[in-house]
Protein: Transport permease protein
Amino acid sequence: MDQLTLVADGFTKPGRGRGLLDAVDNRFLLKLLVNKELRVRYRGSILGMAWSYVKPTVQFFVFYFAVGVFLRMNQSVPNFAVYLFSGIIAINLFNEAFGNATRAIVGNAALVKKIYLPRQLFSLASVWVAIVHFIPQLIVLLIAALFMGWRPGPLNLAAGVLGFAILVTLSVGLGLLFGALNVMMRDSENIVDLVGMVASWASPVLYHWENVRAAVGEGWGWTLYQLNPLTPVVELFHLCFWAPTPGVVTYVQPPGLWMFSLIATVTSVAFLFFGEYVFRRLDGRFAQEL
Structure:
C-alpha cells in the first residue's frame, strides 16, 4: 500500500497544477502547438498565410463602401480609411482569438484523451495563432498610416500597447472560460459567434463615438456603452493610429477614456482569473466528456 501511494504521489491530478504558469513554462510545447495549428489550418490551401491579408482587406472595402461612401461617413470622419481599419484589426483579433480558444479543447480532443499536458496550452496556442494573423494586418495599417503622414507621440504609442494588452488578456480569459464550458455544452460555440457579431457593432468601429452619445444621451445608456471593454480598446487603437494623422485637426477623445480603459483592464484581468478558475475546476472531466 505504501508503495502504491508513493507511485500515485508522483502524478499530478488534472487541474491541480499551476494552471497558466505550467503552460507558460512549457514554451516548447506551446510553440509546437502553434506550428501544428498553422499547418492544419492552411493544409491544401493555395494562398496560405496570404489569407491574413485577403480577408481583412475584403472586409475593409465592404465596410468602407457601405458605411464610408454610401452612408457618407468618410465626409464626417477625416481619414476614415485609417479610422475604420484600426478598429477592424482590433475586433478581428478579439473575434479570432476568442473563437479559436473556445474551440481549442474540443478541436484537440484526440490529444486531450491520449496524454496529459497543461490543457491551457491549447487555448494559449489558439490566441497566439490569432496574433500571428494580426501582425500582417497591423503591418498594412502601419503602411497606410505612414502614407497618410502618421506621426505618433509617446502617448499614442502607449495607447496602442495598452489596447493590445487588454485585447489579449480578455481573449485568453474568455477563451479559457468558454473553452471549458464548450466541452460540457457545445452551445457555447454559438454564443461566441453571437458575441463576435455583436462586438463589431457594439464598438465604435464603423461609426464615431459621438454618434452614440447623440443617440442615447449622456445617461446610463452612454455609461453602459463605455463599460463594454472593447469600446475603450477600439478608441485606444484610434488614438494610436488615426489621431496622429494629418487631417485629424482636433481629436476629441471620449469623455473618461482613460478611466474606462482602466476599468477594461481590470475587467480583462478579472475574466482571466475567473476563466482560469473555471477551466481548472472542469479540467479533470475533459477526457471523459470528449
